[in-house]
Amino acid sequence: MSALPRPATRRSPLSPRQWVSEALFDFWAGRVHPLWTLRRARARLVSRHAASADAMTLVLRPNRHFHGVAPGQHVNLGVELDGRRLSRSYSPTLLDDGCLAITVKTVAGGKVSQHLAQHAQVGEVFELGQAFGEMTLPAALSTRMLLLAAGSGITPMRALVRQLEAAGMPVQVDLVYWAQQREAVCFADELADIAARHPGFRLHLALTRDPAAPAARVHDYDFNPLGDLSGVHVMACGPGGFVEGARARLHGQVGALQSEAFTPPVLSDAETGTVQVELRRSGRTLELPRGTSLLQALEAEGLRPASGCRMGICNTCVCGKASGVTRHTLTGEYATEPATQVKLCVNSASTDLILEL
Fold it and tell me: What was the pLDDT predicted at 3?
């Protein structure tokens, strides 16, 4: 017996969607209250404080359209600069009052990081993407954990450590945190306080430019003082080279290694030369370099495709590929299938391409 057809959903005549466009509603509602929108998530800067010599922590209050974030995940933050909206990915810490804390390191030449870390004022409103990413704790914590962080990779680790503390630090946890100098260490006091409260949590600072005793980088780091690592669940986050170094250093010595890189590693056999890339929707054909991510190559030509995390996680930069071969910049694998989707930030052109841009 076939199921009866479902009655059509009727919107209330009082719903704003019935009589005004979303963009127009958001424009005028925002004049009354900056966080009022029809559906879009936004966040307002409510406070800021220095996290280290080159990093600033911003506390943001999201509106009701934000669906929440798990410790270790990322969000895209949209910033209006010089008439253009730019988006960057950050790993926030969810605070007890529902606010989000993001920590931004100033990057030389980085418009977004410099604005957020140096110029953003309390009251400024940002577009806020929904949370994404798999850098989260296992559902069942039963084995010892080793957390490895370098640079901005400490931000998701901070959120994970806070989650573990809230759960009573149920397993032994070691956090090894690489930074160049002590002045560049973020959350130093907070992490030290957690270590003082929980003997099961140990913090190890690896200062690579410490004049007294510079620490080895991850590929040469001596993990022996941490004891037997067999069966340990490792989580590593940092630049691409750091993550690759951690994988090579710990291969075959640990139970599992979960990682996330916020800059792609450079393939040792990167392709050279140029190819023709046709942008079907805009009617342009460009000569782009092989071996460079499509996102970077397009931006170098003055184009601004939608992008977010720039590390192949959030899918903001996905577009259609009608034909041609692309190469994944993280794995080196080739994709030859026509009429498929491609992530611009982690794929380069290997042959002539036709993209739906």
Answer: 44
Taking Cα atoms as reference points, which of 163, 183, 188, 187 lies closest to residue 173? 163
Phi, psi (rounded to 5 degrees) for 25: -60, -45
Residue 202 exposure: Cα atoms within 13 Å on the Cβ side: 11
Provide the pLDDT confidence category of residue 339 given band limits of 50, 70 and 90: confident
Strand partners, 202: 174
Look up tokens 């050279």; give the residue.
Answer: 272
DSSP 74: B
pLDDT per residue as tens digits for the range 155-176: 999 999 999 999 999 999 999 9
Assess contact for 301 and 286: CB atoms under 8 A. yes
Q: What CA dihedral angle connects 116, 119, 121 and 126, to 10 degrees? A: -40
Distance CA 227, CA 202 (A): 13
CA distance 317 to 192: 39
Per-residue pLDDT band for 2 (boundaries 50, 70, 90) equals very low
**Full strand arrangement of the beta sheet holding 145-150:** 201-207, 173-179, 145-150, 233-238, 256-261
Average pLDDT over residues 71-99: 90
What's the count of helices (H) and strands (E) in the chain, helices before strands? 6, 20
Distance of alpha carbon 324 from alpha carbon 335, whole angstroms? 8
The CB density around residue 247, as the number of other CB atoms within 10 Å, is 15
Q: How far is CA 176 from CA 17, 179, 187, 229, 247, in A?
A: 51, 10, 13, 14, 15
Confidence class of residue 222 from pLDDT cuts 50, 70 and 90? very high
